[in-house]
Amino acid sequence: MAKKKAAKKKPAAKKVVKKATKKAAKKAGPIFPVMALIGIGLIGSSIARVARQEKLVGRIQVATRRKETAATARKLKIADDVGTDMAKAVKNADFVVLCTPVGANAEVMATIAPYLKPGAIISDVGSVKQAVIRDIAPRLPKGMHLVPAHPVAGTEHSGPEAGFAELFRGRWCIITPTPETDRAAVAKVAEFWARCGSDVEEMSADHHDKILAITSHLPHLIAYTIVGTATDLEDSIKSEVIKFAAGGFRDFTRIAASDPTMWRDVFLNNREGVLEMLQRLQEDLTVLQRAIRWGEGDKLFDLFTRTRAVRRALIDAKQA
Amino acid sequence: MAKKKAAKKKPAAKKVVKKATKKAAKKAGPIFPVMALIGIGLIGSSIARVARQEKLVGRIQVATRRKETAATARKLKIADDVGTDMAKAVKNADFVVLCTPVGANAEVMATIAPYLKPGAIISDVGSVKQAVIRDIAPRLPKGMHLVPAHPVAGTEHSGPEAGFAELFRGRWCIITPTPETDRAAVAKVAEFWARCGSDVEEMSADHHDKILAITSHLPHLIAYTIVGTATDLEDSIKSEVIKFAAGGFRDFTRIAASDPTMWRDVFLNNREGVLEMLQRLQEDLTVLQRAIRWGEGDKLFDLFTRTRAVRRALIDAKQA
């Protein structure tokens, strides 16, 4: 019965895009004459590097908010033009990628909208997708195309120096077009990411936000919390927490070292998804807490056996 | 004021042992003529491998509960004698190391006590230490020495095949003697672990259990819970959780793949420590939950900035 059900189930993400883009990836030549990147942190600077290396665009123009960041990016020579003027960066660009924290999207779009080239494709790299569409779509001038994208890749480091061309290789890039999105624009963005080395999948923004809430947002929230809890301990223990971090805590500190602005914006902009998963987690934690208090070893053992199987599934899916 | 306080503070762990053992580590020659290992999983088989490689003992005798495990260990040729008879393994052993899940200690001690060699040193590798003393000390025959130890090392793999000689290299080994413990016995066990490549520290069992509750037990409990929460999701999301695990969840699945029996026993045997830390975590999670619900970005940003600093402290302490 269960087997039958599984066989009937359609995958929510479309494989079509992936196949098409893998084919396209073999074609040479730039996809866009001019690409503009708004923001040049870990993700933006990695896009600049891979786009140049793989000859995905003819020219790269960068605008970033802070002068210091622009100066750093300029020194790295990862783009053809780097400045703080967003209008200048986008005005002749065929492909504009917003690489800012998702909370900045509305303001960025309001600023660049009057200067966008007719027919330009606007994309982003945000870890939430419904909020991106909510903030960008209404500010999009007619004749422009919004193709929201999320390269599921990153490290705990930030800034233009932290980027590298291989960041997206073998990682997922999830594209979440709306029913209105121009399919030719979707295909171009999919090709771009496939040639960055990513496996491209297409799904709805709503579905994306649900999946990422549990696979990414909740783990980050928990890591931040547990590291915070540890730093609130009495002094005599706190110093030793750092010393003896090897037992599991260390993995959490790496996750909890991720960019604060980016993650604040993720939690505020996938509020429903995160709160729903957090509520479930709290319930499950409470059940475990009770099992420990009352010495119910079987309940613990059953859960731990079940979770071990998940790791095997991951290894089978070549995700570990 | 804060600085003065910090300067006055004595470290809870004694550095003395570490220095003494580093010196001792340079001396050659076996520390014990015969070592018995009870249990030959990841930790036991790693001890066998490193003890033989570094010539720390003259002879290695192993007893394990299951015939199949004994057969596997025998095939690996990591010990001089492998069987299921605990009495036989310990009767001429100078150093007996319990490498079983901590919940088995009381029963194992009751079984081996009548056969222990006079003057033998009994040690263990458990991740909790107060419960180990509680379960072993009362069953220890007169003239024997209990030196509880915890090598803070491991992987998510189990069984005799999973072990390797380098597992303990550069990792902590925490020794938690009681005030009654013979100091000569402590020095020998410290030398053993130093020559396994570990940094040896001495502290009270109570202090150990508090530190490990936050650095190891709570992270494992959380990882188990979050992976469990994910596997309880609706089918349409569950299959994609595996697929898109790269965003943070993957790190949790590795931790949550650790040995179920071992971890069940850890939680049941450090109940007070784990429940105390879990309670603090739940409170902190609730505060974050409220901040997300009410859109209080500053609170999130402040925490995330604070936790990022912890990673830096870890890197400075060379623990990352």
General description of the model:
The structure is a homodimer of 320-residue chains. Chain A is α/β, with parallel strands linked by helices and 320 residues long. Chain A folds into two domains: 14-202, 3-Layer(aba) Sandwich (Rossmann fold), CATH 3.40.50; 207-316, 6-phosphogluconate dehydrogenase C-terminal like domain (6-phosphogluconate dehydrogenase C-terminal fold). The first copy, chain A, has 14 helices and nine strands. Chain A has helices at residues 2-8, 15-24, 42-53, 67-76, 86-90, 105-112, 130-136, 183-195, 205-231, 235-243, 249-255, 260-269, 271-293, 297-316, and strands at residues 32-38, 57-63, 81-83, 95-98, 121-124, 145-147, 149-151, 172-175, 199-202. A six-stranded parallel sheet of chain A has the order 3-2-1-4-5-6, with helices on both faces. In chain A, strand 8 (172-175), helix 8 and strand 9 form a beta-alpha-beta unit. In chain A, helix 9 (205-231) crosses helix 11 (249-255) and helix 9 packs across helix 13. The longest helix of chain A is centred in the C-terminal third of the chain and has 27 residues, at 205-231. Chain A is globular and about 65 Å long. Chains A and B meet through helix 9, helix 10, helix 11, helix 12 and helix 13 of A and helix 9, helix 10, helix 11, helix 12 and helix 13 of B.
